[in-house]
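Notes from the 1:1 (GR / supervisor)

We went over the backlog. Supervisor wanted to see one worked example end to end before approving the batch request, so GR pasted a single chain during the call. The sequence is below; no edits were made to it. Supervisor asked that the structure be written out right there so they could see what the output format looks like.
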Amino acid sequence: MRINYRMKKNISIKMFIEELGEEFSQHVKDRLMELDLRCVLTRKEKYNVVDLKHVEHLKHQCNCDKSDLEKVLEKEYTYAQFVVIDNILYFSKNCIESDEVIKSPIVNKVYDFLKSEAITVESEIELKKIDDSNIDYIVDSILSVCPNVSDRYISIVKGMISRSENK
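Structure output shown during the call:
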């Protein structure tokens, strides 16, 4: 597989919509933008597959070491994985998981709630279509578990904005 070194690995919701969401309905775009302050999208090799994480990359304690259940680790949650295929937005049952990242429990809850027919791509990625009928539930569910940004983060962003406006 050829690696695209120019592809941005971290993108905002706004940039995601500009790059891949031209065909999304206005309602889907508006609801996705509600995640923009709290969340960032990350991607690995595939341009059209993004994981939704907290913008501050907060770590959560978990007992996820299968060899040592007493061991408590700190990992970052992935709150969703979005996939765009042929200008259609999908919610994935799968998310990137590693030594540093774990799938949030909300992912399975949202995926199981979605009524659209599941499709499987690349023999392992299970997807359900996102549209106007289910985007409210998806975004509201994610917002219910994804923490607000910290006051420190807000002050940093305000400082960056004021410095850019002064130029």
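Supervisor's comment: Residues 77 and 102 are 5 Å apart (CA to CA).
Batch request approved.
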